[in-house]
Amino acid sequence: LDNVNFQNSIIDTAIYISYVKNSNFSNANLSGVDFQKSNLENSIFNNTNLSNCNFIASDISNADLEDSTVTNTNFSYSKASNTKWTNGNNLPQNTICSSNSIGQCNY
Fold this sequence. Notes:
This protein has about 110 residues and is low in regular secondary structure. It has no helices and no strands.
């Protein structure tokens, strides 16, 4: 999957080890979705419910998570170069964030 529009969707399944880069997840309810080891480069998650999601070892480089809910979301070992974070969200240890990520990226 590439360039898919999931805007305003409710997804209640795993998107595990998937290639879904350049996709739009804006305004979607993705609570609890497993994105582990997925390529989500350049994807848009504006105003998206990402609570309880699993992004372990995923590539979210150049993604936009602005105004999204990331409560209890696991970004461990994720690649997050140039990612735009929601409201200065702090990330857990082992999240790979380059110095050019946009927003606060503590690890």
